[in-house]
Structure formats: C-alpha cells, structure tokens
Amino acid sequence: MSASVAFERARSEERAALVGYLPAGYPSVAGAVDVLKAMVDAGVDVVEVGLPYSDPLMDGPVIQTAVEAALRAGANTTDVLRTVEAVAATGTPTLVMSYWNPIDRYGPERFSRDLAAAGGAGVITPDIIPDDAEEWLPVARSQDLDTVFLVAPSSTDKRIALTTEACRGFVYAASTMGVTGTRDQVGDAAADLVARTRKTTALPVAVGLGVSNADQAAEVANFADGVIVGSAFVRCLLDADSPADGVRAAGELAGQLSSGVRRQA
C-alpha cells in the first residue's frame, strides 16, 4: 500500500498525516514492533522503519544512540524486513528509511523484491539524489514501491523539480540543515520549502523538522501535508525505565501528536 493512501485519507479529514520513525531492533526486534504498533494504535498514519547503519551521518545523537544499540544487539536487514512485515500487517503504509550502502550490499533488486514481499510501501533514501539512483529506481518501480527522496532549504528550484519528479508516495522536506533532532521552535524555512516544493508536484509534502510536541505538530500541519517525527519517539525509549514503559510513552506521544495534526495551530 503506497503511503499516498494515508495522505489522501488525512486530506479527506482536512488534516495533515502523522509519520512516525523508529529504527528496527531498538530496544529489541520484538520491542520495536511493539512500540510501532502502539504508535499506530495512537494515530500514526505512516511508519518509517529505520535500517540500522554503522555510519549514520545525517542522524542526530538521539537516533544514533538507538541505532548503535540495535547494531550491537545484532540487528540486520532481515530484522528490518521482519519489522516491516509485522507493522504493515496492521494496514498502515510502512516504509524503510535507509542509507544507500546497506541496500547496495544486500542487492537493490533483492531488497526491493523482499521488501515488497513483506508488505512494505517503499523506501526513503536520505543520502542519494535521483541522479545517483539508477540502480534503485527501475527495481523499485518493478515492485511498485514508493521512492522517497529529500529536498532541503539549500535545494535550487531546478533540483527540487528533478527530485520530486523521481518521488512516489510523498516528498520528504528536510526543513533544517544538518543532522536530525528535536527543535525548540518551527522556523520560516519549513513553510517556504513546502511552498517551493508544491510548485513542482502534486505529491504530498511531509516535513521532517524535529517536532516533539502537539503544538509544534499543529504548527507544521498548517502548511504541510505530513508531519514527520523521529527523535522524539526514540527519546521516549531512551528515557524509559523498562520496555513496557517505552511502549506506553511512545503511544502517549503519538496520541498527543495525532491530536496536534488534527487541531492545527
């Protein structure tokens, strides 16, 4: 199921979609599935399952801590696919967020085939641009997978147009420069980037900004089709006293964020 289905449903309800991220394998493979299902039950519309990678250059310290723990515990691509299968079974569009190197090592054709078999909706590839995705796009298209690339405030209008042309499902607007992480406030760059991106495509535009609470989610929902939250969910698990507490905290946060995208600012 393409992520676009969830965005269309949200649009019909006159709200933004809530996109939630968690790396596979943290706090354990089964534990991550439990957390993601709790997030879905509480209102997350689209799930991003992170593929743990040893050199996550674009991830902030919170996500890096979780990814490193997952890798130490032996999390691998097979675990990612198992996680996708379990979450996609809920009927929620479930994508993999991955750097290119792990996909390349696994084999792009094999990865696309196995992801589709697991019920995955597609892949978000933060570290490659469409120009460098000649090995990926044909095999992803052959399996009807969403191909989600990133645009940023530094992207030229031409680059945004080239990027959105290659996207399927939605466009990921990384509205702050640098690594991921929560932010104290929403800046003007996010709304400007969404406006520029919408000039080039009819696809939904989802913003990854560092949103961590309902008020921020409501503010971003005023101008974007989707609100992407990652570090705040991971922080729930890092701060939890037990896996059960982590599940509960992530579910509570998802509920608050879900109310935010419905309320808007």
UniProtKB/TrEMBL annotation:
Q: Which domain of life is it from?
A: Bacteria
Q: Which residues form the signal peptide?
A: none
Q: What class of enzyme is it?
A: lyase
One of its Pfam families is Trp_syntA
Enumerate the InterPro entries for this protein.
Aldolase_TIM, RibuloseP-bd_barrel, Trp_synthase_alpha_AS, Trp_synthase_suA
Q: Which UniProt keywords apply?
A: Amino-acid biosynthesis, Aromatic amino acid biosynthesis, Lyase, Tryptophan biosynthesis
Active site feature: E48, D59
CDD domains (alphabetical): Tryptophan_synthase_alpha
Q: Which reaction does it catalyse?
A: (1S,2R)-1-C-(indol-3-yl)glycerol 3-phosphate + L-serine = D-glyceraldehyde 3-phosphate + L-tryptophan + H2O
Keyword RNA-binding on entry: no
The pathway where this protein functions is: Amino-acid biosynthesis; L-tryptophan biosynthesis; L-tryptophan from chorismate: step 5/5
UniProt-listed Enzyme Commission number(s): 4.2.1.20
> Annotated Gene Ontology MF terms?
tryptophan synthase activity
Gene Ontology CC: one annotated term: cytosol
How does this protein assemble? Tetramer of two alpha and two beta chains.
Q: What does this protein do?
A: The alpha subunit is responsible for the aldol cleavage of indoleglycerol phosphate to indole and glyceraldehyde 3-phosphate.
Q: Which family does it belong to?
A: Belongs to the TrpA family.
PANTHER family, per this entry?
TRYPTOPHAN SYNTHASE ALPHA CHAIN, CHLOROPLASTIC (PTHR43406:SF1), TRYPTOPHAN SYNTHASE, ALPHA CHAIN (PTHR43406)
NCBIfam families per record? trpA
- Protein name (record): Tryptophan synthase alpha chain
* Species assigned in the record: Phytoactinopolyspora alkaliphila
Q: What is the phylogenetic placement of the source species in the record?
A: Bacteria, Bacillati, Actinomycetota, Actinomycetes, Jiangellales
